[in-house]
Amino acid sequence: MSIRGLKKKQPKTFKVKIITVDAEMEFSCEMKWKGKDLFDLVCRALGLRETWFFGLQYTIKGMCTWLKMDKKVLDQEIPKEDPMSFHFLAKFYPEKVEEELLQEITQHLFFLQVKKQILDEEIYCSPEATVLLASYAVQAKYGDYDPNFHEPGFLAHDELLPKRVLRQYQLTAEMWEEKITAWYAEHRGIARDEAEMNYLKIAQDLEMYGVNYFPIAQNKNHTDLLLGVDAKGIHIYSINNRFSPNKSFEWSAIRNISYSEKELTIKPLDKKAEVFKFFSSQLKVNKLILQLCIGNHDLFMRRRKVDSIEIQQMKAQAREEKARKKMENQRLAREKQLREEAERAKEELERRLFQLEDEARQANEALLRSQEAAELLAEKAQIAEEEAKLLAQNAAEAEQERQRLEIAALKTKEEKRLMEQKMREAELIAVKLVKESDRRAKEAEHLKQDLHEAREAERKAKQKLLDITRLNYPHMIKYPQYSPTDTRDANFDKGSIKLDLKDIDLKRLSFEIERERLDYLEKSRKFEDRLKELKSEIHALKLEEKQSGLYS
Q1: Same domain for 27 and 75?
Q2: Phi/psi at 351 (nearest 5 deg)?
Q3: Domain boundary at 148, 170, 204, which?
Q4: Quick one: which of 4, 70, 336, 471 has the most CB atoms within 10 Å?
Q5: Contacts of 203 (CB under 8 A, 6+ apart)
Q6: Which residues make up the binding site for a 1,2-diacyl-sn-glycero-3-phospho-(1D-myo-inositol) (predicted)?
Q7: d(CA 544, CA 227)
Q8: Are 257 and 265 in contact (CB under 8 A)?
Q9: CATH of the domain at 59
Q10: Over the stretch 247-292, which tens digit does the pLDDT of each residue have?
């Protein structure tokens, strides 16, 4: 046997892409695998044990269809793509999410799917409820609200509200974020799984939650009704109202559901009740309706029976897990609280340290300022001491100056007294000189008058002498020459001599008078100069006395 024959023959495979609400996965499947084989592989990859809620959905000719578990994958009407695409979604919904969703992964997948259905408006929700649901979604994603970390605008890239709500109210993104954050801040301390469960507990009360709608007709001509299948039963709606059903059939009241071609029949448990028949657009729709009815009915009946060992184990594990998570959350909450308290204490210590450092810095600055002030005061004290010494010296000098000024003032007073006395004497002298000047002027005037009278007498004497001479000696006039031996001539000469002498005396007297007058004028001038000098000295003394008074 060849080595190649010893090798195990590898089975042929094909690729499959599984799309969950928040992720994508690829698997290699064997050609002979049935739908259940692929479904179990996906559930194992996700760690999912509550498999009865989910299924693999694909789209064929615009219609959403679920992969059949008991048929080969390749034998079903699936678009031949490479890889084949399936959506892993919740096919059936629980009646009470808090009691039936045991695993955290199951709860998380339901949360993501229901959230997407609300945002896509497949499930109607009032604006107030959408804001509350959005706050739980934010709590599940971001944890506890922290105003220091979750600053305005942190929800700008999150889709949290249906477009219908955004269009209905003319509010800005900032206003919506403020409303959501107001609720979000109140969810402090809620873990992610608790926030998601609170979200689902609110969503399960919505009218369109978990309902699959199909268009139907009461006859073959037109479609005027909607048939809804959910966890509680089958409901008939008008075409324009998906909230309030016109008629409902609970699973416990249904005896049988069957279809023939496009006709679907619902037989109530009460045989007397009317059988409800309706028509769908396609045979495939009836098959899909029947498939959903069978699955929901099985789950409805299972909920009302004693749980299997597997479910009991899962519930026990879920309770233990919840208890463990609760303790863990409590521990984390305590640790978080302690950490927050420690952080607050640290911040308080840091603040106190910063405050103490600031106080120390201020104290150092105050100390430096005090030292600078002390040095400045020392310098000022030294300057003041020097100024005091200088002032003392100036005071001593001022005292000396005061004494000198007093002495000078005394001297000045004495000099002033002497000057005043001299002035008085000078005034007396001046008065005397004026009187003497007047007297001398009068004497000079008398002398001048006497001189004038003497000259007048002399002129008259000369005239009389001439007259006498002319009468007695007429020939002398004609004959001016005379004999020296003549006695009369001698007498005449004697008279002439006498006249000449008298004339000489008059000239001498005039000369003396003129000399005395010049002496008097010279003395007067000198006396006036001396008087001016005395006035200047008195004026200088007065100025010095004024300055001395101001200085004092």
Answers
A1: yes
A2: -65, -40
A3: 204
A4: 336
A5: 114, 118, 123, 125, 133, 209
A6: 68-71, 287
A7: 134
A8: yes
A9: 3.10.20.90
A10: 888 998 888 888 887 888 888 888 888 888 888 878 888 889 999 9
Residue 310, token pair as written in the block: 């597997």
What DSSP string describes 379-432? HHHHHHHHHHHHHHHHHHHHHHHHHHHHHHHHHHHHHHHHHHHHHHHHHHHHHH
Structural domain contains residue 235? yes
The answer on whether 68 is annotated among ligand-binding residues is yes
User: Is residue 370 domain-shared with residue 453, that is, in the same domain?
Assistant: yes
Q: What tens digit of pLDDT does each residue of 233-254 get?
A: 999 998 888 988 988 889 988 8
500 is in an annotated binding site: no
Residues 50 and 66 in one domain: yes
Residue where a domain terminates, one of 418, 441, 471: 471
For residue 446, is it within any domain? yes
70 is in an annotated binding site: yes
- Report the distance separating Cα 190 and Cα 329, nearest Å: 9
Question: Residue 203's closest CA among 281, 137, 258, 141?
Answer: 137
Residue 9, annotated as binding a ligand: no
Q: What is the pLDDT of residue 550?
A: 57
Q: Is the domain of 187 the same as that of 119?
A: yes
Comparing CA positions, the residue from 333, 269, 304, 344 lying closest to residue 96 is 304
Matching residue, tokens 């010893």 = 6
Q: Give the gyration radius of the chain's Cα atoms.
A: 75
- CATH code of the domain containing 171: 1.20.80.10
Domain that residue 245 falls in: 212-305
Q: Could you give the number of structural domains in the chain? A: 4
Q: What is the pTM for the complete model shown?
A: 0.62
- Strand order across the beta sheet in which 24-30 lies: 24-30, 13-19, 84-90, 54-60, 63-66
Domain presence at residue 509: no
Asked whether residue 220 is marked as a ligand-binding residue, the answer is no
| 454 vs 458: CA distance, rounded Å | 6
Alpha-carbon gap, residue 516 to 497, rounded angstroms? 28
